[in-house]
Design goal:
The protein is α/β, with parallel strands linked by helices and 555 residues long. It folds into two domains: 29-291, Rossmann fold; 312-554, SGNH hydrolase (Rossmann fold, 3-Layer(aba) Sandwich). The protein contains 16 helices and 18 strands. It has helices spanning 7-24, 30-36, 48-51, 105-114, 147-164, 192-206, 224-228, 230-246, 273-291, 322-325, 377-387, 404-407, 420-436, 458-478, 504-513, 537-554; strands at residues 39-46, 73-82, 88-89, 94-96, 121-127, 169-177, 214-217, 250-253, 312-320, 343-352, 357-358, 363-365, 391-398, 440-449, 486-490, 518-522, 529-530, 534-535. The termini are far apart.
Length: 555
């Protein structure tokens, strides 16, 4: 560790811990006091998406739920060693804050934990982009940047410093996000599971912490690599799952539904960027809080069932990707604010992020996104509720990190990303539940927003219309509804010479023209479109209104 430490800086940091411990002990039960007196230490490690690549602290304020998250967290200790050739190291323990002008997941992780836990926190982070588990992080034969021995020494010294100051602490968890570079080495890719198992075992042994819990972050599939390296990303995920399925102290943490940076030239990127990193940290915080029983249960029940016994209910199904989910549509920006009020006359159920957040039955229609976000369902429901006389219910199934191929009946070689079976089951369950309550159910239509990412990559763009056609066709067969109306919305496709020779607008028009039960909604003038691919709050609200109007016009 850096020999040129500032004793004054460290004393101040530890003084903060002492003051915090004194505060949290007031008016607490004895058992809770004992636990809250212990400093909870977390280790963060991995490669670029752990380090915070392509994020910017000044961009945090663009995302309202995270306003102020770039400010120093004076009640959280931070020890770090970041980078490859040119490493940046903390001077002992410091205050948690952005480092190297990047936003790491630890910033939102600590804030989310502190909302629910009174104990003091400390984070030790060692990360470097473009590194391999098979090489750099290999405990047995480290090569390249030899990060395993470096990280082990760094962690041991940080803990030893707490020991020297007689600070009571507990190793609480190890957050790991890595794997992209191992998929480029044929030998490393199939061995990822075995290497990860060994990695966990060595950390537990070398830190004398046999019950150390690990949080293994899913690789983000909402990126270039998630598309053109789909089979390789899948192989790494199998290795991760192999370990977390077998190890009761290792959790697989979904992150592929997170936002990602908007890149050039076509919008796709390799990294989470600012928004995704903030969400990344919350993913791991929730996984930890769930394990320690501190994550509050979601409770949004319908106080009163909104439909009379035996009445008819029109069911509307919304489906799609990042903009259907509402990746950059935030409740703080919603206008009018009345959209944020629960609509108890409309029953709503959902599965978001490919199952990351699932409703407990029916709820009142309202904002339920896991990051203070919402999709077009709010304005869609409000518009239909004003215009239609009968009863309506809405069911939404979305996954921000998916592409159109994931929704097809055939799927792809990445079997774990196949959404069609779950989507079909979700629709059937929605119908069956309403029928079990004694209602006549009309599936009024499925509203699908075409994958934004698919318009940016040539091979995906060529197949987009055919993939939508297969989804529509098979759903009608499997639901035994040959005349089932489908409403497919399309935003302006990526405009770049790399893909402009593939006329996806004409292909979608041709598809709709050949199907009298399919309505194409060209949402080409949405307000608030951010850069490429992503629609922001005003555009999502307008999209919901367009979807509703297309149904009302057809009806």
């Amino acid at each position: 560790m850096n020999a040129h430490r500032s004793p004054l800086l460290f004393a101040r940091a530890l003084g903060l811990v002492a003051a915090l411990l004194a505060c949290v002990a007031v008016s607490r039960p004895a058992a809770a006091q004992d636990d809250d007196d212990i400093l909870r230490v977390f280790i963060f490690a991995g490669q670029s998406n752990m380090e915070g690549a392509d994020s910017k602290p000044e961009d945090i304020e663009r995302f309202p739920p995270y306003a102020g998250y770039g400010e120093p967290q004076k009640d959280v200790l931070f020890s770090y060693c970041l980078g490859r050739e040119n490493k940046v190291r903390s001077d002992g323990w410091e205050t948690l804050r952005p480092v190297r002008n990047m936003v790491g997941p630890e910033l939102s992780f600590a804030r989310e934990i502190k909302k629910h836990v009174d104990a003091p926190l400390a984070i030790i982070k060692v990360a470097a982009g473009g590194t391999h588990l098979a090489g750099d992080w290999n405990p047995d034969e480290p090569r390249g940047f030899k990060l395993y021995p470096l990280a082990l020494e760094w962690v041991r010294e940080a803990l030893a410093e707490l020991d020297r100051k007689k600070i009571k602490y507990r190793l609480e968890g190890f957050v790991w996000h890595q794997g992209e570079n191992d998929m480029f080495e044929e030998g490393a890719m199939p061995a990822y599971g075995a290497n990860l198992k060994n990695f966990l075992a060595r950390w537990r042994a070398d830190l004398n912490a046999p019950k150390l819990r690990f949080y293994i972050g899913e690789l983000c599939t909402n990126t270039i690599w998630g598309m053109d390296l789909r089979p390789r990303m899948y192989q790494i995920s199998l290795g991760q799952r192999e370990v977390t399925d077998a190890d009761p102290l290792a959790d697989y943490v979904p992150t592929s539904h997170n936002g990602v940076e908007i890149g050039n030239p076509v919008g796709l990127h390799y990294h989470y960027g600012t928004l995704g990193q903030l969400q990344h940290g919350i993913n791991h915080a929730h996984a930890y809080l769930r394990n320690v029983g501190e994550l509050p249960a979601r409770e949004r029940p319908l106080k009163e069932w909104p439909y009379e016994p035996g009445s008819k209910v029109q069911l509307f199904v919304l489906a799609g990707h990042r903009n259907m989910e509402g990746e950059r549509s935030f409740v703080q920006e919603a206008r009018p604010k009345s959209l944020l009020k629960d609509q108890p006359k409309i029953a709503y159920r959902f599965s978001l992020g490919g199952g990351y957040l699932v409703s407990d039955g029916w709820e009142p229609l309202g904002p339920v996104g896991y990051y203070d976000t919402f999709g077009p369902e709010l304005s869609f429901g409000a518009r239909l509720g004003r215009k239609l006389k009968g009863h309506i219910a809405i069911a939404k199934f979305s996954h921000a990190g998916s592409q159109a191929v994931d929704w097809t009946p055939a799927g792809s070689e990445a079997k774990s990303r196949h959404l069609y079976p779950a989507f079909l089951a979700f629709v059937r369950e929605s119908i069956a539940d309403l029928e079990a309550r004694g209602h006549e159910v009309e599936l009024a239509g499925i509203f699908y927003h075409l994958s934004e990412n698919d318009t940016s990559m040539p091979s995906y763009r060529k197949e987009a219309a055919a993939r939508v056609a297969s989804l529509v066709k098979q759903s009608r067969i499997d639901l035994n509804l040959p005349e089932l109306p489908w409403f497919v919305s399309q935003q302006p496709p990526t405009d770049h010479e790399r893909v402009n020779n593939i006329d996806i607008v004409a292909m979608m028009e041709e598809l709709a023209a050949a199907d009298p039960q399919q309505t194409l909604i060209q949402a080409f003038d949405l307000p608030g479109r951010e850069q490429r691919l992503v629609i922001t709050t005003p555009g999502i609200i307008k999209l919901g209104e367009l979807l509703a109007d297309s149904f009302l016009k057809r009806k």
